[in-house]
Model the fold of this input.
Amino acid sequence: MTVLWAVIFFGLLIFFHELGHFILAKLVNVKVLKFSLGFGPKLIGRKIGETEYLISAIPLGGYVKPLGEEPGEEMKEEDKPRAFNFQPVWKRVAIVVAGPVFNIVLAYIIFLTFLSLNYPVAIPKLDSMTSTIEGVSENSPAQKAGLKKDDTIVEINGTAIMDWNEMADIFSKNPGKELNLKVKRGSDLINVQIIPEIAKSTDESGKEVTVGRIGISKKLDVNLIQSESIFSAPFKAVEAVYHWCYLTVEVVVKLFTGSVSSKQVGGPILIVDAASKAAAVGAFAYFNFIAIISINLAVLNLLPVPVLDGGHIMFFTIEAVRGKPLSEKIMGIANKIGMALLMMLIAFVFYNDIVRIVVPWVQKSLQ
Done:
């Protein structure tokens, strides 16, 4: 079932993204040669009219191929008026922007459905994801060590801590072991020694495991959006999409500035794992996860990095300002740099996924 939920998950995200490119291309009369879900070798395909519709072997993306997208692409003279690279800048920008916009539309449809059915949409506040302590349990290791409400744990055994999950994971993996904490209290930094108490917990497979606990709680600060009636739901759905977009941009900015740990960045393995868990909880959690990732995909795609949609928009903007496009040589170099950055990011998120999900799974299997 995990594979099925993953296929539905990625299929919806990819379909809506590429559908945006496809519809806008058709609206501005650009000829579309291919519409593919997935990359790589064709699994199945059928040509309807002037467009070939494909399902390809690698299900981690998709593409729409308009006529004339590649520099130097050969075409008949009569086809040039409908070729992508012969269109004015505004049309090309509209086609490219439509992909991320349709991902936001998918999130809007999901949130609208929730709100119309009187289900709330929750948007966490970034401050509640930090390692700031909200509460300390009585007689807990945290209280005995002198930790207090509003303390922020910034370092454990010399490792900088950026968020709550990263901190909790360290405590969980070190039951009975002394840890050296650096704690921010007001404007002061203090050193604290603490030994997580040994506790029993149940992992995802239902197996009992030993974990460490120190007896602290975090803020559960969320912005809860609800609709008073079905008539206000469309407006509330816009509000929900806006707040999730804002939060996503805020997280991206803090990732680049180092305010949020890059260890929290996940890739396909994490997404598949999270999607299957959400599906096990129920339809609401599963589609809510789809909406959130769809917004994340839209925002990340708009980053001004060559090979992403945002990179294309950047080049088109430069062309509009200069009155002519950049040379093919410069574009080629920029795209190679962009592809190298993307490959590095893919390698990094796969590494995070393996460390976070695959390695613990293998360790549990060998026990």
